[in-house]
Design brief:
The chain is α/β, with parallel strands linked by helices. It has helices at about 20-30, 65-75, 100-105, 115-130, 135-145, 150-170, 175-185; strands at about 10-15, 35-40, 55, 80-85, 110.
Length: about 190
């Protein structure tokens, strides 16, 4: 979505953990020479932010007054654009300032849904390839049905499998993954 289409110069990208929100935020930040912030950090609006693009990751955790100020700056045009990324849509954020709650209800949202099997298959194949591992379709199918389906969890599991297989000096196979996960679950 082009920035010129954002209502009030503000867009929130929302979706589950590991779906790529932060990755998209980084890309957008570079392309727009934006100031990048994390809502978990303490920060206050600065004069030098005026007429700049701004991205806040983990936006639901940002200080309410600061968030209210930044949204107002975006609405007035004092910010070029404001990108917010979080797992929950802005209307669900726990805010106490009534006017902020009102502003958040009007933030345009782009949702990233849970990845389907085709997307996860492609992601798994790429992660394995990036680690120099060639794997079978049966391993991919097994992982899709027997593990957490978030990209972050799958990435961590592949690292664990690769390291464990390297110690035993064997390939990462469906059988190896099955035994590894059984042992891990206890």
């Amino acid at each position: 979505m082009e920035r010129s289409e954002w209502a009030n110069n503000t867009l929130a990208i929302v979706g589950p953990k590991g779906c790529g929100k932060t990755h998209l935020g980084h890309i957008w930040s570079v392309e727009n020479d934006a100031i990048s912030l994390d809502g978990r950090d303490v920060f206050v609006p600065k004069k030098e932010w005026k007429y700049r693009a701004l991205w806040i990751d983990n936006a639901a955790e940002a200080d309410e007054f600061t968030l209210f100020t930044l949204i107002n700056m975006a609405i007035s045009g004092d910010l070029q654009a404001l990108l917010l990324t979080d797992m929950m849509p802005p209307v669900s954020w726990n805010v106490q300032i009534p006017d902020l709650h009102s502003r958040l209800r009007n933030v345009q949202i782009a949702r990233i849904e849970e990845p389907d099997d085709n997307l996860l298959t492609g992601i798994l194949l790429k992660i394995f390839k990036d680690r120099g591992l060639k794997v079978s379709d049966s391993l991919i199918s097994y992982l899709l049905t027997n593990t957490e389906r978030s990209v972050g969890a799958l990435r961590s599991l592949i690292v664990e499998l690769d390291e464990a297989a390297a110690i035993e000096k064997i390939n990462v196979t469906r059988s190896f993954a099955s035994k590894y996960l059984q042992n891990k679950r206890g």
